[in-house]
Amino acid sequence: MATSPNSAAMSADAAVLQRYVPSHTARPAGDAQLFRRIAIGILTIMVLAPVGLIVYQSFLSAPFFSPRAELSLDAYRYVINDPTFYKALGTTTLFAFGMVAVAVPLGGLLSFLITRTDIRFKRLLEVLVLVPMFISSIVLAFGYTVSVGPTGFMSLAVRDLIGFVPWNIYSLAGMIVIAGLSHVPHVYLYVSSAMRNLPSDLEEAARTAGASVWRVSLDVTLPMVLPSLVFAASLNILLGFETFGIPLVLGDPNGIMVLTTYIYKLTTLFGTPTYQLMAVVAMVLVLITLPLVWMQRRLLRNARRYAALGGKGSRVSSLKLGASGQVIALSVIGLWLFVSVVLPIGGITVRAFVDAWGEGVNLLERFTFSNFDRMLEVPSLVRGMINTVILSVVGGAIAVVIYLVIGLAGHRNRGFSNTVLDYIVLLPRALPGLVVGLAFFWVFLFVPFLTPLRPTLVSLFVAYVVVGLSYGLRLLQGTLIQVSPELEESARTTGATIGRTWWDVVIPIVRPGLAGAWALIMIIFLREYATGVYLMGAGTEVIGSLMVSLLTTGAMNTIAALALISIILTGAGLALALRLGARIHD
Amino acid sequence: MNGRNQGRTEMKHTPVRGLLGCSALVCAVLAMSPTYAQDAALIDAAKKEGTVTIYTSTDAEQSQALIDAFTAKYGIKVAYNDVGTNGAYNQVISEAAASQVTADVVWSSAMDLQMTLVKDGYAEPYKSAEAGSIPSWANYQDTLYATTIEPIGMIYNTGALEEDRIPKTRADLIKFLKDNQAELKGKVATFDPEKSGTGFLHHTNDARQTTDFWDLAKALGADGVKTYSSSGSMKETVVSGENVLAINIIGSYALDWVKETPNLGVTFGTDYTPAFSRLALISKGAPHPNAAKLFVDFTLSKEGQEALASGGLPSVREDVTSGLNIKTLNEKVGGGLKPIAVDEGLLEYMDPAKRVQFFNDWKAAIAG
């Protein structure tokens, strides 16, 4: 149902193509170049409008709309001469690479165990592994403070046992481990969707030849999913550069500053917000992105090599772990789940039902439901919950359709527009949500025909689509790329148009991936908090951004209650999506 | 009691009006009769506009009573945008530049940003009918009005510090910080003035009003003070015992926090308790100018102030009986209440050179 507008657009497009593609072309029935160009062109405008605004702003001496604004390099001069900037840049680099070093190996391992082996409780694990993604990093950080912070209940328990607390989550190392563990699902999603469709004959051959499961994973499976690992690693480096919540909550007290918190500081440092300085730092983040995309493209130049799902319809069979293998694998996953799911969610849950905690407080005595009292009394909180659900469920579904259209536009696209697409997609991911949201606020304010949309959820939706672009699109592309070209080519030789080929061959094959993508996008939209800070207004409140605004006034009880509600909402949504996905799968 | 309070209010303002050469009684009549006539016309016009849009940094939890009372009384809808101090400022200047003014009333606790908006011409002067009932320091040229008075104080963890150890004066506090370094090391919190506009206002106001602010900063530095960008994270760390006390926090919030948090205490300097205010202005080119005026009037009226005070935001009027008012608040904090005046002094630290100097001094002082 969700894909019908897409099909209409595509068959109309195919008809258009019939007319416009000259008959002497070498291609059988056109390559849908017009469709590709239109789809990618619209996306480019959606992304470049805010990004272009930021670029322009960085070369001005005042807000771009101010009469005092003139072209100037002062902002660059300030940032280049600010020692705090270099310190933040260094810390951010360490943080991002550290995070990747934790998340990618662990995410790859989990993907292998869950998709390629006969590990037990597979169905359950598939869901649990995603849970850290449910939680926005700001909430995650609070959850950790309550459980393993200096006076967290776990820390106090360990201190009673061994006399001291052996960890410090307020250190850079602590932040890296927390961020790394919480980004494992991001790696898992990319790598597991690639692994799931691998034929198992190679692995089986290696096993028959006597290789151990671990050897198989390293020498056979790993090379085949290398592109998805590269995707995941470079995306996570970007995410590391863009992370805001964890450094804000955990780095703040000890003065550990990263680029995003440096930007945050620039909003208050000069009294009135200095957008030009914020824009310069955003530019730095963009400049870091470009070589990463270039590197990705080089590595993936020959994507055909990785197409693994052939037309022969091979069934995936699992590698046998054996008894001790099961124990080891389940222990690794169990430990990771304990640290990255039980600790933060436990912290938030505890916090939502107590009015005090920490040193010398008996949590059982402080049990209360009062934190939820105001939830239904304050209209903005109620609206926030409703809006969040609408944006993630309905908006998420529409976003999947949009990403699919873009994904198809880029699918087996040999044109120049594909190069554009590769760069466009990662640009918004490199920018902090706060900055993207601010830029979209301006776009909806200053572009005349868009102004009526500003006070509606549409403005938030558009910003969310752009912010979630890299996740959603890469996920769909990862699925699309595994449809072997022979399948499409055979359809084309029997006379199908490219639109018909996509509709009858490609989309049915990737359909399970679409349900998964919907679940993912829903989660991303649910947990989003920074993007909405500048965009939301009366009537368009969302939970994540409400929490940020409540944080400044200290309504921690309400924040904890909201956080728990958003976790429950996401859990419910995911359960639903998985049921849906499972049905499509069978 | 009510009547007595009102009488006192009139007495208090008599000297000001006396300058104009009329007695209090005549003046009251002169001031009030046109007001009532104007009110009826204003109310009609405002009702026709039907809605009023507020940009604010105040959580709906605190202001819901005010909003509900306003809508109940006049049937005018309130579009309440809780966008934070920076958000409010940003949206106002952006929308003005795009000729899309949306805010009718800007109501924010960032006193310096509000004054900047007035100075940069984003505000429309309006002499509120209620202007006579609030202190003179709370009204800047009939354009910017203080709607609350909120003390700046200290919170502490009652499990870690017994009440009788809590310092009462500024001098005591500095001494306490110096004398208990071993106990307090790494367990004292305050706002980071670089990251928090509120913190900047509190600290620079102290630097302007007191002589021993830098002694305090040095004492904090010697204790390895930790600085935070939001009230929320400071409160949470004191509740959990990670920090034992936090200095220069928003006392109006803290007075509410201690009610629902058993191990949290709040205290104010008996010799000196500065207080900030949430300032309201009507934006220039407001789409609903009459509703905006009516909302400002209502916010400053006894009824509106009662609603705010009941939500935990103490009133600038003396005749308010629910919650705290400026008089009962002063008694509660020990008599040293010193409101931050709504005047151009707020802009002193908007000057980049003075700002940078302050940050440098601050960082040097707390480096310990």
Question: How do you describe this structure in short?
Answer:
Chain A has 586 residues and is an all-alpha fold.
**What's the name of the CATH homologous superfamily of chain A?**
MetI-like
What structural class is derived from the secondary structure elements of chain A? mainly alpha
Helix content of chain A: over 70%
How large a portion of the residues of chain B is in β-strands, by DSSP E?
15-25%
The number of distinct β-strands of chain A equals 0
Report, as a whole number of angstroms, the end-to-end distance of chain A.
19 Å
Rg of chain A (CA only): 24 Å
The fold-level CATH name of chain A is: MetI-like fold
How many domains comprise the coordinates of chain A? 1
Largest interface: A-B, 66 and 70 residues
Assembly status: heterodimer
- Estimate the mean pLDDT confidence of chain A: 82
Query: What's the overall average pLDDT of chain B, rounded?
Result: 88
Largest sheet of chain B: 7 strands, mixed
Which class do the helix and strand fractions of chain B yield? alpha/beta
From the 3D coordinates, which CATH architecture of the largest domain in chain B would you assign? Answer: 3-Layer(aba) Sandwich
Span between N and C termini of chain B? 52 Å
At CATH's second level, what is the architecture of chain A? Orthogonal Bundle
Q: Name the overall outline of chain B.
A: globular
In DSSP terms (H or I, runs of 4 or more residues), the helix count of chain B works out at 15
